[in-house]
Structure formats: structure tokens, C-alpha cells
Amino acid sequence: MGTSEAARGYQVDDPEAALKFAIRHIKGDRVQIIEGVIEPMAPSWDHENTADLIREQLGPRARTLECTLGSGDLDLVGSSNWFIPDLAVVPRSLAKGAGALRPDQTLLVVEVTSESNGDTDRLVKRRRYAEYGAPLYLLVDRQERTCALFSEPGPLGYTQAAGPYPFGTDVRLPEPFGLELRTDEF
After folding, report:
1. Which of the two residues, 161 and 34, has the higher pLDDT score?
2. Which residue range(s) make up the domain with 145?
């Protein structure tokens, strides 16, 4: 049997699992899958600065909630999506030893737009995070210079939206956070 014959006989039983396995083993790069398309992660320093400003404000409250803040992998099981949020707040008990979590295991997901992915964060990720049960989704839109907080997820999207608020306006994060997020430095 020649190599080409063997290759034609190879079948993947679970294409979703194979794709998600493959992206986790790409050396040197973090990549996510957005609606079946593999996208490398390459945030700018300005983008990272905005995420860091949010992390600094959420950090004390996350610690009292026994949560971890990070940009770990989120698996949208049953779909061709594997997201890497700019920031997520998850219970420390779930984060310890976890390779990937599901959006419904987060307390808050934050996405900060870039020129290259603004529509993905505004439309696709907002819809998918709601569909997969992320309770709160904070969209920091650097191109529009606004923030919006989405809550009450469901299969058709978030049913509640606060904002968009222009940068400089504090954004109220509900319980379990119970704090005003300052946006004046974004």
C-alpha cells in the first residue's frame, strides 16, 4: 500500500476534537478558532495596556471571590469555536489544573477590540458567549471608544445591555463584583 493510498484511507472520527487538539499544539503561537477559522493572537501593547487596566481594577475583588483573572482557553463544545478572551474571571477551584473551560464557567468575560477583530468581538463573540452561558460580557471597543456590558445570556443572545458608554464613563459591574469600572484611561 503506497503513502497516497494510506492517506486516502485516513478518517477523523471527530473533526471538532481534532481541530481543537491541533491548535493547542501549535508551537510558539496562541491561536483561537472563530467560526471554524484559525486566527493567531497578536495583540498590540496598547491593547494589552487596556486589558491590564481592567485586570488591576478587578484584581482585589476577584481575590475576595476566590477567582482567577486570565486569558485562558474557552472551549465552545459542540462548535468549531475555541476562544481566547482578553480577560476572564473564573473560580480558582475550576481554573486549577484546567486546560480549557466553558464560557458558562466564567463570572465575566472581557474582550478588547483591535482594528483586525472589532467585528468579531462586537458580533460573533457576543452572540457565542451568550449562547454558551457566559453570565457577563464586557466589550471594550477601542475603535468606537465605548464600553458595553451584556448580561442575562440565552440561546438567541444577551437579553440585557448597559451602554455603550463613552470612555471616561464608569461602568457598573453587578454582583458578584459590585464595583464601578473606571474607563478614563482606556
Report:
1. 161
2. 43-181
